[in-house]
Write a structure and sequence with these properties.
It is a single chain. This protein is mainly beta and 206 residues long. It has a single domain, classed as Sandwich (Jelly Rolls). Helix content is 14%, strand content 35%. It has two helices and 14 strands. The strands form three sheets. An eight-stranded antiparallel β-sheet has the order 1-2-12-9-14-7-4-3, covered by helices on one side. A hairpin with a 2-residue loop joins strand 1 and strand 2. The model has no long low-confidence stretch (mean pLDDT 97). Bound molecules: N-(carboxycarbonyl)-S-(naphthalen-2-ylmethyl)-L-cysteine (MD3) and fe (iii) ion. The site of fe (iii) ion has 3 residues, from loops.
């Protein structure tokens, strides 16, 4: 379903086996060095989600090859299979792949009570679509508009296995996750909480 121009939601895109495999990979990526960490914003606030990056390390507000705001370790490499997954996801949503290769994965873990305020993802130097994959608990995803952090917005329920692609006019829209729904993960997945994986094109040199 197209929620807004360029914002395409594909519920249940990943089957149970693909979800289990991706979760196992996320657990491996979460281990130190350069593992799961809490991000501190320049104003001193700490994000309630914990995150790990592959390919390029996101910090507020830029990308680096090492965990500049954490253990200082080199960021883990971007796995080629995630590039293939991003390409398939964009093709599923838009009918054709993206010309640029994907080189960033950002994995966000939402424990009970975690949320993400309204923000825009503007640190990439590419207009390529952002690919979002959800695992575990469902959440309320809030999609706003490019010009303002405030209403009008659209709330969409994201569930385990859902794909969302944000490109074109939606690429710089405000968005956030006001709440998750604890206890709604598929029991067979074996995840307490929610994981979101976003795949991105950095636009940065190799
Ligand atoms: C719309 N993550 O990592 S995914 C983020 O569920 C982020 O963890 C949320 O926002 C999460 O930056 C929402 C959906 C999403 C991701 C990136 C976008 C929506 C987007 C980039 C541009 C527009
Ligand atoms: Fe975002």
């Amino acid at each position: 379903a197209e929620i807004a121009p360029g914002a395409v939601h594909v519920p249940g895109w990943l089957g149970p086996d693909e979800q289990r495999r991706l979760l196992a990979d996320c657990r491996a990526w979460a281990r130190p060095p350069a593992g799961l960490r809490t991000v501190t914003m320049p104003n001193g606030g700490r994000m309630s989600v914990r995150s790990v990056c592959l390919g390029w390390h996101w910090y507020p507000y830029g990308y680096a090859r090492t965990v500049v705001d954490g253990d200082g370790a080199p960021v883990k490499p971007f796995p080629a299979p995630l590039g293939d997954l991003a390409r398939r996801a964009v093709t599923e949503a838009y009918g054709e792949p993206c010309a640029e290769p994907y080189d960033i994965a950002l994995v966000n873990f939402y424990g009970e009570g975690a949320a993400m305020g309204m923000h825009r993802d503007a640190d990439e130097r590419s207009a390529a679509p952002v690919v979002s994959l959800s695992l575990g608990d469902a959440c309320v995803f809030r999609f706003g508009n490019p010009g303002t952090r405030t209403r009008p917005w659209t709330d969409v329920e994201l569930r385990s296995g859902d794909l969302f692609v944000f490109g074109g006019p939606s690429r710089l829209a405000y968005h956030g996750v006001p709440r998750t729904r604890p206890g709604t993960a598929p029991p067979a997945l074996g995840l307490t909480g929610r994981l979101n994986i976003t795949l991105r094109v950095s636009g940065l040199p190799g």
